[in-house]
Amino acid sequence: MKKSFLKSNEMLKKTLEVIPLASQTFSKSHIQFPKGFSPVFLEKGKGSEVWDVDGNKYIDFISALMSITLGYCDEDVDNAVINQMKKGVSFSLSHPLEFTLAEKLVSIIPCAEMVRFGKNATDSTTAAIRISRAFTRKKHILHCGYHGWNDWYIAGTTRNLGIPEEYSSFIHDFQYNDLSSLEKRFNEYQDQVAAVIMEPMNFYFPENDFLQKVKTLCHKNGAIFILDETITGFRFSLGGAQSYFNVTPDLAIFGKGMANGYPLSALVGSKPLMQLYDQVFLSSTFGGETISLAAAIATIEKIEKYKINEKLQKSGIDFSQKFNFLLEKHQLKNEIMLTGHPTWLSLKYLKDSEFKIKTFMIYRLIQQGILIQISHNLNASHTTEQINQCISAYDVAFYELSHALASGTLDEILPCAPIEPIFKIR
Question: Measured between alpha carbons, how far is 264 from 297 in angstroms, rounded to an integer?
Answer without folding.
Answer: 11
